[in-house]
Amino acid sequence: MPIVKPTLLATTTHEWRGGKHIPVSGGCLLVVNHISHVDPLTAAHLVYDHGRLPRYLAKSGLFRGRFMRFFMTAAGQIPVERLSSNATGAFSAAVAAVRAGELVVVYPEGTITRDPGGWPMTGKSGAARIALETGCPVLPVGQWGAQELLAPYAKRPDLFPRKKITMIVGEPLDLADLAAQEHTPAVVAEATSRIMSAITSLVEQVRGETAPTERFDMRAAGLPETGDPYRQGQPGQDHPKESDPR
Fold it and tell me: What is the Cα–Cα distance from 50 to 58, expressed in whole angstroms?
């Protein structure tokens, strides 16, 4: 944060709402919609401004370079090997972090949204499984603006004029009825649906718009779950320009 916060203050303005819902101590999950590669930085800014230090479930590719591996490990981040059996190790590490009293940030979509309008997509089960296993507070967060600073898969940020980042923290989700049941696939799916619905509602507040009735599903659309879909030339996916509001 000694580097991240001054950089963001120099290049963005921000509006935090609902920060009172972030507990001053104790393990919890922040579940956030994913719109840009700078999302971990803006979420860190939000969390740090409310007296906490975040840990993340971060894709393993970020740990490959020597510098990034040192930075990510020193920051206590948890590598996730997506589409791999090793992802179970990340789940166990996240559960342990929550039980140790840490604040863990999770992007339930698992990747930057592919929805054409930038809305939250269908969610992966990881956040719900962590929540059900630990019984910790789950705080939904809706954000908008980071995609204007760095468009999805763009190579260069758009620094000027300064971009506004808005993040709303919602009230903790009540998943107690689900946590009390056997954690079957149906129960996990219901918890995931509640998480994504809460996030989407907050994004609607930030944007002042109504989200599509049906949530975008990458699998149904035939899109890859990892990598840059634009570079891979998927049908119907035009690469966003760096000024694209998505």
Answer: 22
Going from N- to C-terminal start, the domains of the chain cover 15-152+163-221
Gap between the Cα atoms of 18 and 170, Å rounded: 6
**Residues forming beta bridges with residue 165, ordered by sequence position:** 14
Instruction: Tell me the mean pLDDT in the region 178-193.
Output: 98
**Where residue 188 falls among pLDDT bands split at 50, 70, 90?**
very high
Q: What is the spatial distance between Cα 119 and Cα 99, in angstroms, rounded to a whole number? A: 31
The correct answer on CATH 3.40.50.2300 for the domain covering 15-152+163-221 is no
- Per DSSP bridges, beta strands 138-144 and 163-169 are antiparallel
Residue 46 exposure: Cα atoms within 13 Å on the Cβ side? 32
Coil, strand or helix at 20: helix
Residue with tokens 């190790």: 89
124-181 pLDDT, tens digit each: 999 999 999 999 999 999 999 999 999 998 889 999 999 999 999 999 999 999 999 9
- Global pTM reads 0.87
DSSP 8-class letter at 21:
G
Quote the pLDDT of residue 2: 64
SS (H, E, C) 68-90: HHHHHHHCCCEEECCCCCCHHHH
231: pLDDT strictly greater than 70: no
Contact residues for 87 (Cβ-Cβ < 8 A; gap 6+): 80, 81, 126
Residue 9: in which H helix or E strand, if any? helix 4-11
| 164 neighbors 145 (Cβ within 8 angstroms) | yes
Say if CB 163 and CB 145 are below 8 A apart. yes
